Amino acid sequence: MDNDILISYAKKAMGNAYAPYSGFSVGAALLSADGEVFTGCNVENSSFGATICAERCAVLKAVSEGCTSFTKIAIVSSSDDLTYPCGICRQFLSEFMEDGEVILCDSEGNIKEYSLDTLIPFSFTLTKDM
Ligand code: THU
Question: Which atom of ligand 1 is nearest to the CA of 57?
Fold first, then answer.
C-alpha cells in the first residue's frame, strides 16, 4: 500500500482523538503483513497516566483481532511539526514489527520515513532461558 494512502487513514483516525486535556490529537494507521489497515487515535483520561497513545491504540485493535505482524505505521498529529512516537510506543511496536517502517507526516504534508530499528535500537526483549 502507498504511504500516502496509509497517511490518509491516519488523518481520518486523528479526527476521533479524545484529547480534552492536552488538545493534542494524534492518528495512526498500521499496515499488517497481509495488507490490512488498523487505525488508532489517542484516548486521554482524567487520570493522565491511563492515557493511550494513537500508536498503541492501533496495535491493540489489531492484536485483539488476531493480527500480530506489521510492516508499516503512519503517524500524524494536530501539531505543525512531525510527531515522533513516544518511547513506550516504540517498544510496543518493536514487539510486532520487525524491520518495520515508520512514516511521519506533518500538517503541511512534509513526510519523513524511518526504520523502527533506527528509532529504537536495542529494544528490550525477554530472553527465553529464564
Ligand atoms: N501521544 C500519542 O498519541 N502518541 C505519541 O507517540 C506521543 C503522544 C498523545 C498522548 C497524549 O494524548 C497527547 O499525545 C499528548 O501527550
Answer: 3
User: Which residue's CA is the closest to the ligand 1 atom numbered 1?
Assistant: 53
121: Cα separation from own chain's centroid: 17
pTM over 0.90? The answer is yes
Give the span between the Cα atoms of 130 and 24, in whole angstroms: 41
**Does the CB atom of residue 119 touch ligand 1 within 6 A?**
no
Angle between helices 87-94 and 54-64 (to 10 degrees): 20
Q: H-type helices in the chain, by residue range?
A: 3-14, 54-64, 87-94, 116-119
> What tens-digit pLDDT sequence spans the chain (130 residues)?
999 999 999 999 999 999 999 999 999 999 999 999 999 999 999 999 999 999 999 999 999 999 999 999 999 999 999 999 999 999 999 999 998 999 999 999 999 999 999 999 999 999 776 6
| Ligand 1 pocket check for 40: Cβ under 6 Å | no
What distance in angstroms lies between residue 128's CA and the mean position of ligand 1's atoms? Answer: 32
Chain center to CA of 100: 11
Active site residue 55: yes
